[in-house]
Amino acid sequence: MATNAAAGDAPPHVVEDSRGAFRVLSDGTVVRSTPPIAGGRGGVVPADPSVEWKDSIYDAALGLRLRIYKPAAAGGERKLPVVVYFHGGGFCIGSYAWPIIHAACSRLAAGLGAVVLSADYRLAPEHRLSAAIDDAAAALLWLRDHSTADPWLAEHADATRTFDQCIYAYE
User: Fold this and answer.
1) Which of these, 79, 76, 58, lies nearest to 154 by C-alpha position?
2) Where in this chain does the record put each Alpha/beta hydrolase fold-3 domain (predicted)?
3) What is the DSSP letter of 10?
4) Which end of the chain is more exposed for a tag (fewer CB within 10 A), N or C?
């Protein structure tokens, strides 16, 4: 005698698909596509010799990182303004390390003659709002607290001239 499997025994199925960036399954699991990795140093984006960059952790407990860019020619008595860049993606997709974001921040640092911080944040739907907003605030607090402790910031950045840039759509 055959029996019907209970609805709870069925394997999870896709209930939402965000253009292949991530899928939400019926059991609540979120499956993200493999993100592109930025370069500059052997990656997808060609190196820009006019800009230097390094990665830092701004929230170790949550594993949140940011990337600091500065013009290679930075130096002298005049400190540079700071632009804090939050990538777009509607709080659902994107990363500070994506090649398109890396290239945009490199162009900002070179073109504006500024120190640029590109901060990552927790993404929805795994993390509900206000997680991304809280992370952005934490990145700004990290800048405040590390403007004299981080050698690049201490030497090149004028944290009293800080601007933030939020991009909500792909360029």
Assistant:
1) 79
2) 83-162
3) S
4) N
pLDDT computed for residue 54 by the predictor: 96
What dihedral angle (degrees, nearest 10) is formed by the CA atoms of 144, 169, 25, 59?
Answer: -10
**HSE on the CB side for 25, CA within 13 Å?**
9
Q: Tokens standing for 91?
A: 């709080």
pTM of the shown model: 0.76
Homologous superfamily (CATH) for 51-166: Alpha/Beta hydrolase fold, catalytic domain (3.40.50.1820)
For the chain, the straight-line distance linking the first and the last C-alpha, in angstroms and rounded, comes to 60
Which residue carries 């253009």 as its tokens? Answer: 19
Distance of CA 143 to the CA centre of its chain: 15
Confidence of residue 170 (pLDDT cuts 50, 70, 90): very low
Identify the pLDDT of residue 77: 77
Residue 13 tokens read as 């199925």
40: Cβ contacts below 8 Å, ≥ 6 apart: 46, 47, 48, 53, 102, 106
Residue ranges covered by each domain of the chain? 1-34, 51-166
Q: Which parts of the chain are beta strand (E)?
A: 14-18, 22-25, 30-32, 51-59, 64-71, 80-86, 115-119, 157-166
